[in-house]
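User: I want to check something. If I give you two sequences, will you return the structure for each one separately, not as a complex?

Assistant: Yes, each is folded on its own. Here is the first sequence with its structure:
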Amino acid sequence: MKQASIIAIIAVAHLFSACSDRNDSGSKAMKAQSIPTKTSGKMKNLVSIVEIPTDSFQRATRFYQAILDVSIEEIDMQGTRMGLFPGDEGAVNVAIIHGAGYKPSSQGTLAYLNGGKDLQNVLNKIEPNGGKVIVPKTGISPEAGFFAMFMDSEGNKIGLHSYQ
């Protein structure tokens, strides 16, 4: 049931992006904010879905599975390949994606992934798996924890956050 809800949300978001002009980011954001969750009728997070573009879907899948120690569910949505990251009910949905109109970039919006208890454990796996650490583990404050940034196997700049 939970996985079906995630797939439905991603499908709706994908259809919005496929049907709208990619340069019309303001109207897309408004449409995405109006997508309710199945359980509450209201979104629990301002951010609903994060799509990470890929040049090589298989390489990106291997990379993220290796650094995050997760299993990524692969689906095909009308010719677009998607790899769904695991997530709890009400969490932000994250997917790697390969299809027309998706191009990896080190510029633009920066998503931060949960680095677990200590993001250094994830950072240690970045370079051996084809990525590059660009900002090492850096303290923010005792209350806010730590952050780091890396380039993934596709050339996307991604952040990490943890409290230790």
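And separately, the second sequence with its own structure:
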Amino acid sequence: MTALPSVEAVRAAVATVDDPEYPGISIVDLGLLESIDIRPDGPGEAGDVVVGLVPTFSGCPALSMIADDVHAAVTAIDGTTSPRVYVRWLTGPTWTVERLTGTARRTMAEEFTVAVRIGAGPVPCPRCGGDTAEESMFGPSRCRAVHVCRSCTEVVEVMRA
């Protein structure tokens, strides 16, 4: 019998999956990974791996693609017989920007000119560090607004919960 994968191996496999909107940023760094359950026996097949994801918002169009990519990454691990990936709509916590790692925040700022709103204070511009002003609360997706930097006049997307 093949040994079951470890939680660490599954986490490492899931960490290879990037968000389609932000190539180069892992869904783990974005805070989408909520749970990993290795079931050596029980209600499912022996060797089941169950991965729970938290959506950034309920209508995220990339969720099925992300779930498929996670399934493929986990399936490639030796000892995995029938991985399942599910989105924790009602049974898990709500995603917030606090779930983003420092790596995700830096990469979003440097590579995509996306800032992150934490709390009610001013949002710093990822280009120059100056304060931004909200231009529109409606951005290219439900979790982003559009700001303009008061210093460098750069248009900045701001991720918000």
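Because they were folded independently, the notes below concern the second chain alone. The longest strand covers residues 33-39. The mean pLDDT is 88.
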